[in-house]
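Anyone? Bumping this.
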Amino acid sequence: MTALLALVRKELLSLFALPTAYLTLTMVALVTALIFFDHLRIYNQTLFLYATTTMGGFSTDEIPDYINLWDAVFFPVMETLGLTLIGAVPLVTMRVFAEERSRGTDELLVTTGLTPTTIVVGKFAVTFLFVTLMMGVSFVYPATAIARGGLGIEHLAAVFVGLTLYSIALASIGLVCSAFASSQLVAAVSAWAVAFVFWDFAWVYPFVSEGVAGFLDAISLHLRYGSFAEGIVSLSNIVYFGGVVLVAVAAARFSFDLRRVGA
Amino acid sequence: MRGLALTGVIALSFGLGSFYATGHFGVFSAVNLALGSLALLAATVAGVRRIRRIGGPHSRPVILRGALLIVAAFALALVLEQSATRSRIQFDWTGEGRFELSPATLKACGEFDGELTAALYRSEGDPRTRRTRLLLQRLAQFCPLVVRELLLDESPEDEDRYAIGSSNSVVFAIGDRFETVERPTEGAIYEALYRLRSVSNGVVTVLRGEGQGDPERQDDLGYSGLAVALGTEGYRLQVAVSAAITEIPDDSDAVLLISPRRRMRDSTIDALRRYLAKGGRLVALLEPGVESGVESLLAEYGLEALPSVLVDPASGAVEDAAEGLNIVAYNYAEHPASAGLNQNRMTFFPGVRPIAARATRPGDRVMGVVWSSPHAWATDDLSVLEQRSGRVERRDEPQGYRYIMAAGRYPRDGVETRIVVFGDADFASNRYLRALYDLDILINSVHWVVQRESQITLRPKIRDTVQFPLPMQDTLRTLYGVGLLVPELLLIAGGVVWMRRRAA
């Protein structure tokens, strides 16, 4: 346990000693703030437009039901952020294993007495802490705006939980890619590609049976985290993201076995 | 091998990217997806060969153990996910309980014997279908419902057959019967399911002609909403002109009397008396300030509609009336008609006359069902009903619980008469029927008087979508104060770290 904590401490220090971490935090927080503000602005303007044309105020039935905070703000923000995070999270994960491997310090790490499982768990934990912080920082503005308006804070919490779990799943994919790659660039590019493939399997449906399509639906990231945008926090979706982490930890652990036998 | 794999995933992601960007497969997508898949396949084969070459007698168990660990992790994740799905545990954080299905909807859905199907007809990219899909999936978790999705463009025959007007329509079908729901909210789905069940609960006779509420009038003052709701619940409404009748029709399972505005004829009151004496059922909605003559008949059954107006300061000023005149009730007795209602499930009664309930014969069971708060009092000054604001001054009237609705069972001569009296009628008008739990207390009262207690339930509420603007100036201030400031500080921190590293 002490060894694991020491590893976590070392990883955290090395992560925040790099400008990349701050750049990623900045990028995600800025993109979230701008996307959220832009959708909020359009939503407000549309509402005012309807209120003016109908002259009935905001409580009339004249405003179409699809113009509401969820459909006009939360859902599109989450969709856009989902794709943005596919680009941003691999920037954080690319160096975690690949850097040590390219420098040869991974072997030094093994000689400290840490088991491969401990190393993998430690590095995953630090990365998860970072992406949670990243989501927390990026949600300060939407949460403040919504809370000040006195609207939908529970719903926003569901969106936050969904995006955080989704980011953790993306980080897991990125870490596996980093564990198998010897270069950071290869790790990042392969993480982007794998995450993009797992984003949604809708493109395959015309070519496969209904059963296969159902299975692909069940493993696609987009559908899983989409229900959070609707305000639904379901145990099965939480477990799904936990499952992605579990498989990723096992796969990253496997990369150490392959190294051991010289593959 | 790695180069091949990298090329494969890049080609695959560009193929997918072009598909998502354009919405269809072009030559670019197809070629990229094909080449990407082939490259990945080749890389996998090369990888497996390499591992087999490496795999000596000592390394094979290591590789095997690692691979098995991945398979085990995948299997465990699958089992856990399936268990979680079966547990149906989910939390609705919409703030308005949008996906929390009401007991009435679940009950309606669970009562079908055959296979019930729900076909969601949609156009590509219609955002409203997301919510409908979730609603149907939630419903399918609790009852044997088969959910299908169909594109409108690909189903022109169904469009005509089921009279589908637009995307995001759901057709519920069982056997050869079907119901089409154009705007599939939970309330609309519930009503469609009820119609599809085609259950007949009996005939309700509505007395008309002496200023009573009109079940065909569709404006705020009418009661057409009540008529539709009773129809949905399986009741056939028949109108009887009270001035012309000598007897209540024999096929009446219940009589509904909505706020007569004039004194009813003695012959009508006598007809009602004879009807009740032979085990009839009556739901009477009586307004304050009107003495129609039915009050004396009700008093014979221990239900006295007092000639005063109830003032309940606990309700405060609601709508366009003096404080306490429009009553928000939250105290209920244990009674089938108020089943499920509690302090959080309130009912709204604008302008109430208090009801006194006391059994007049042994064996009668008479009780108040909906009560005011203990601070309520009754005033004989009916002019307060015209008061649009301010407070109604209490002189020396005593405060205490008062009945807003009362019910009685009268088992006499081998038959059982049942009566429900409300000290208000407006709560059932189109304007207020869907407010809070007004519809539920009224329809459940009808179910109770006709002895269809199994039909008593709480119906889905209309959900208001959040359609209020956030003040723009405030939003802008928050953007500057938090939205831009936080990234700016992070960037400064990153810059400092970068410079310190360079200096080191």
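Late reply, but here is one note on the structure posted above: Chain B touches chain A through 81 residues (CB under 8 Å).
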